[in-house]
Specification:
alpha/beta, six-stranded mixed sheet, four-stranded antiparallel sheet, binds adenosine-5'-diphosphate, binds magnesium ion
Length: about 230
C-alpha cells in the first residue's frame, strides 16, 4: 500500500538574525491511510513545525513531502489552498472558532469554501453537531459555550467535509482530564468509523495511548517509533 504521506529527509531551518534555528533536522517518515498517529515530544521539539509542513502551511527548507506520491512543495499557494480545503481538517488547542458566528455557522465554514449549497451545508452541519453531542447548541456563540463544548464545535468543523486526514495540534491542551478523555474518544471514534487518518501532536503521554503509532520527536529528530497493537 502506498503511504498517504511520505516525508523524505525533511529539514526546516528558521533564520533568526545571525542565528539559524533548526526546527526539523532530518525527518524521514511514512503515514498510512486510516491510522492514528501521535507525534509526541516536549515543547520546542518541532512537532507543530512538522504538522504545518504536512498541512502545506509551510514549506521545508530541504527534503520533500509526498501526498499520494506527489510533492506538496511543488504546489502553488492556490493549489495548496485546494489541498487543505479538500483533504484536510484541523483541530487547534485554542479552538480557533470565529467569535461572531454561531456554532452551526462555524461548522458550515469549510463547506462554504467548497461552495456547497446552503441547504446541504446547514443539514450537514446539524448532523455533525449532533454527532459531537451539541444538537441543542447550534445557535450559541463560542462565548456562550464551555471550553469542551467549543472544542466539540471545532471537531465538528474539522470533520464536516469528511476529510482524508485530520491534523490536531495539542487538541486538549486547554481542557481538564475528564474533558480530554471525552474529546479523544470523540476524535478517534469518528476517525476510526470513517477510516480517516489522524495526526495528533501532543506532549501528553496519556493521549499517546489512543494512537496506533507513537512517533517521539526530540530536537527536530525522530527519537523513537512505537507501534501499538
Ligand atoms: P513544538 O510544537 O514541538 O513545541 P515548534 O515546532 O513550534 O515546537 O518549534 C520548534 C523550534 O522551532 C523551536 O525552537 C521554535 O522556537 C522554533 N520555531 C518555530 N516556529 C518558528 C518561526 N516561525 N520562526 C523562528 N523559529 C521558530
Ligand atoms: Mg507546538
Amino acid at each position: 500500500m502506498e503511504p498517504l504521506f511520505q516525508l523524505q529527509n525533511v529539514h526546516k531551518v528558521y533564520p533568526m538574525g545571525d542565528e539559524r534555528i533548526i526546527a526539523l533536522d532530518n525527518i524521514s517518515l511514512d503515514f498510512f491511510r486510516g491510522k492514528i498517529y501521535c507525534l509526541l515530544g516536549t515543547s520546542g521539539s518541532g512537532k507543530s513545525t512538522l504538522l504545518n509542513l504536512i498541512a502545506g502551511l509551510e514549506k521545508p527548507t530541504s527534503g520533500t513531502i509526498l501526498f499520494r506520491g506527489k510533492p506538496l512543495e511543488k504546489l502553488t499557494e492556490a493549489q495548496l489552498a485546494i489541498y487543505r480545503q479538500r483533504y484536510v481538517g484541523f483541530v487547534f488547542q485554542s479552538y480557533n472558532l470565529l467569535p461572531t458566528l454561531t456554532a452551526i455557522e462555524n461548522v458550515t465554514l469549510p463547506l462554504i469554501f467548497r461552495k456547497v449549497p446552503k441547504k446541504i451545508r446547514n443539514l450537514k452541519a446539524k448532523e455533525m453537531l449532533d454527532a459531537v453531542g451539541l444538537a441543542n447548541r447550534g445557535k450559541h456563540k463560542p462565548s456562550e459555550l464551555s471550553g469542551g463544548q467549543q472544542q466539540r464545535v471545532s471537531i465538528a468543523r474539522a470533520f464536516v467535509n469528511n476529510p482524508e486526514v485530520i491534523f490536531a495540534d495539542e487538541p486538549t491542551g486547554n481542557l481538564d482530564t475528564k474533558t480530554t478523555i471525552e474529546m479523544m474518544d470523540l476524535i478517534t471514534g469518528i476517525a476510526r468509523e470513517h477510516n480517516q487518518t489522524l495526526l495528533i501532536v501532543t506532549h501528553d503521554l496519556e493521549i499517546a495511548d489512543y494512537a496506533d503509532q507513537i512517533v517521539k520527536i526530540k530536537d527536530g529528530n525522530i527519537d523513537e517509533i512505537k507501534e501499538r497493537l
